[in-house]
Design brief:
It is built from eight helices and five strands, in the order αααααααβββββα. It is mainly α and 203 residues long. Helix 1 runs antiparallel to helix 2, helix 2 packs across helix 4 and helix 3 runs antiparallel to helix 4. The mean pLDDT is 88.
Length: 203
């Protein structure tokens, strides 16, 4: 029997959680949760009390799981299951720290292959030469000005001053609708290279 309001070891409460809480969930959820508890959460909390698991301890566990080679999604699943367990323990009247899930930091799910690759000058030149209109002009503008796709799509005719050789970046377009720029610092008046002005005049 676990006395409400008293400190309780994580190991003892996990046994009760599996017996009383998991048993009412769907079988697929039970299997997933039980696997996380037995292979990751219980070993990590061995010798700890529930009231000792504060935000810094949980953040440390996230870092340890990630360092052990767990995929970012599995790390997140472990942390979320542990948060659920702690909420259940608090509902059962045990002394448990209140944690803000939004304050936790998880490892990125992006991999090196997800990172954008910057084209070499000769690759950009070939792309511009081979792309049909109007994409050829669009790629030339992105290459010359370093615009985000949304900033490029948000341009209007009156943003250009081809006499002065400038273009004003004032808005973006996402999904066919105008929107604010990603950051206030993105708003700018940029110089247009002469060759780009000539292409725009011909467009």
């Amino acid at each position: 029997h676990l006395a409400p309001g008293s400190p309780v070891s994580a190991s003892r409460y996990l046994v009760r959680y599996e017996r009383d809480r998991l048993s009412i969930l769907r079988l697929s959820t039970q299997r997933t949760a039980r696997a996380l508890i037995r292979t990751r959460i219980a070993p990590a909390l061995r010798g700890s009390r529930l009231d000792q698991i504060d935000a810094s301890r949980l953040q440390q566990l996230i870092a340890e799981w990630h360092a052990a080679g767990l995929a970012p999604g599995t790390v997140r699943a472990c942390a979320r299951r542990l948060l659920t367990i702690l909420r259940a323990a608090r509902a059962d009247g045990h002394r448990v720290a209140e944690l803000d899930p939004k304050a936790l930091r998880y490892p990125s799910t992006r991999t090196a292959s997800d990172a954008p690759r910057i084209l070499e000058p000769h690759e950009l030149r070939r792309l511009i030469d081979q792309a049909p209109a109007p994409w050829s002009l669009a790629f030339a503008m992105q290459g010359a000005l370093g615009l985000r796709a949304g900033e490029l799509l948000g341009l209007r005719v009156d943003d250009f001053d081809l006499v002065a050789g400038t273009v004003r970046i004032q808005r973006a377009a996402v999904g066919g609708r105008e929107s604010a720029l990603k950051t206030q610092r993105s708003a700018a008046t940029l110089p247009l290279p002469r060759a780009l002005c000539d292409r725009l005049l011909d467009h």
